[in-house]
Amino acid sequence: MFAAPVFAGWEWAAAGVAVFLAAAVRGFAGFGFSALTVASLSLLAAPAMVVPMVFAMEIAASCWMLPSVWRRADFRWVALVFCGIAVGSPLGLTLLSRLPADVLRSALYGALLCVSVLALFQQRGRLRRWRAPAPVVGLLAGVGNGMAAIAGAISVLFLLAERENDPARIRASLVCLFLATDIYALCWGGAMGVAGAAHFWTALLLLPALFAGVTIGGRFFQRSTPEKYRLFALGLIFAVAAGGLLRQLAGVFT
Fold this sequence. Notes:
This protein is mostly helical. It has one domain. The chain is 80% helix and 0% strand. It has eleven helices and no strands. It is globular. 45% of the residues are buried.
């Protein structure tokens, strides 16, 4: 049955531009679409309407990218991290429901900000590399996902900390990981009645902007160097963490 899309009138143009730019980042880095799209589209509609639609577009973006990255993905890492996220996400939601949400999210964004700076120094050879087992990465990412929907940033941070990791491998693994986690989240959203026909119709109408952005981002990735990719990814994580922390602090002091 047809349902009215989320946006109307001039909002479509703004939403199309926002999705295109976020998709270009996703096509290049392999992550970042959800954080950027939710932040921008929430200016046009309520977050409860935006988030399920973004999950649907994330799945579409991953399917679009999958044929070109399939052979480079580390499926063992993807499976172990996904299991950790599946366990950690309910734990993060539980913490959020029992402890002060603003304090928890501020602490999480602050920690992510600090670790991204440390990872930047590590990439420049000033600190020893560090790593963690994939299930631990998944558990931490799941807790962060339940608290602030930043599983992607946490997962990428650990991948970037392993100096021998090839950017193409990182990007491919992220695409496969997000395909699994977004299907998982969207199924939960549908079962709970959060995701409905309006979200899917809106996502469908925004697919041309999504696919165009992902394609252009992928072409920039092919011309990039490993060093530029790592610096861009760390800068994106830093921006996500800083933006989240500023939003939390603004909410506390207003």
